[in-house]
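Researcher: Quick test of sequence recovery. Tokens follow.
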């Protein structure tokens, strides 16, 4: 099999103990916020439960895909497809016009069988893949298409088609689906009071409307969105560099969530829960506050120091230098590791074009509390 194709079948400053407790909470902000509201409801604020339950929008992935899917692993591990969509509908119209939404960011989150460690694999949106036949929302059948950009699956057939494409790419069944759009992402960041981070050099990108001097900042929603969207402000302007920025920001975001005491403040908790449940679209398996609470309980012992982030190993596509293709043998190592519920080996990403970027060193979590707001 050619190397450029996959099989088509389918730091805490407050001490280690306190740090572990905070990091465990950081990795499931939506779920634990919703769980807190369930508990509040049991104390007599049931109307809040009803309100938040009504916030959640879900899609029935299982019914849409039927039985033509990989088997569940059945070992207690879990795979979740997390998408950031670039929809310009509704409140997102301020970001320009587009003929349809696409998956601007895609991450496969693998929780190990004890839900105490996780591997996160980012899939570049410009990856050329085999998109399987899909049924679009409304019932229109879309034929299979070889060598098309990964993010077109969402444009063609929505969440179900994207899940099906990922399952064919990886051979892994996606147990759950979570999607956040531009406005939802901004609102989540603002609900947390912004995210402190430090830039090692200036970032200026007119297309994403981001202008940051080198130094420490607290990024609020619009700036945070600009950072995770920028392609031209750092490195070589590629999607691979942007993925590194996204991963670095995610780490800063987790540190922020862990340090602001949301769980100790009912007002903060309820505000975060209201924003979080409005911000996401899930599969029906996570589509109620009760189900989110169950998920939160299952990951309560997850420590962020045991979260390993990588990008799908890729190389430039022979047909188009602006596109990438998976490095077959190395990509297979990634999926095999997840299937076996083992850490992704370093050899799987060695030499990948995705590893040959320095964008991830441009930003980092703010090392001190009380960072000043910047970038306006």
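Model:
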């Amino acid at each position: 099999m050619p190397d450029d194709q996959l099989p088509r079948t389918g730091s805490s400053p407050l001490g280690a103990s306190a740090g572990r407790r905070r990091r465990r909470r950081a990795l499931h902000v939506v779920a634990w916020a919703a769980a807190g509201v369930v508990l509040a409801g049991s104390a007599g604020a049931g109307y809040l439960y009803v309100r938040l339950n009504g916030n959640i929008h879900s899609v029935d992935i299982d019914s849409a895909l039927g039985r033509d899917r990989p088997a569940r692993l059945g070992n207690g591990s879990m795979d979740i497809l997390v998408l950031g969509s670039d929809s310009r509908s509704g409140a997102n119209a301020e970001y320009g016009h587009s003929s349809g939404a696409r998956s601007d960011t895609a991450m496969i989150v693998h929780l190990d069988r004890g839900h105490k460690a996780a591997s996160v694999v980012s899939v570049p949106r410009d990856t050329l893949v085999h998109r399987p036949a899909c049924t679009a929302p409304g019932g229109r059948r879309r034929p299979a298409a070889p060598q098309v950009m990964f993010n077109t699956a969402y444009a063609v057939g929505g969440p179900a088609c994207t899940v099906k494409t990922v399952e064919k790419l990886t051979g892994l069944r996606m147990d759950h689906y979570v999607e956040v759009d531009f406005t939802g992402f901004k609102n989540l960041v603002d609900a947390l009071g912004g995210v402190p981070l430090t830039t090692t050099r200036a970032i200026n990108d007119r297309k994403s409307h981001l202008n940051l001097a080198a130094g420490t900042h607290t990024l609020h929603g619009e700036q945070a969105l600009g950072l995770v969207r920028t392609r031209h402000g750092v490195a070589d302007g590629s999607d691979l560099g942007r993925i590194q920025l996204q991963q670095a920001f995610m780490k800063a975001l987790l540190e922020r969530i862990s340090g602001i005491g949301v769980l100790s403040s009912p007002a903060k908790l309820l505000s975060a829960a209201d924003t979080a449940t409005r911000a996401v679209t899930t599969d029906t398996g996570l589509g109620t506050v009760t189900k989110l609470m169950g998920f939160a309980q299952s990951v309560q012992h997850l420590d962020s120091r045991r979260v390993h982030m990588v990008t799908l190993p890729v190389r430039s596509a022979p047909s188009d230098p602006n596109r990438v293709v998976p490095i077959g043998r190395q990509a297979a190592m990634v999926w095999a590791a997840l299937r076996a519920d083992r850490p992704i080996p370093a050899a799987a990403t060695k030499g990948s074009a995705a590893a040959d970027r320095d964008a991830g060193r441009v930003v980092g979590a703010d090392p001190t509390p009380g960072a000043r707001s910047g970038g306006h």
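The chain is about 35% helix and 20% strand.
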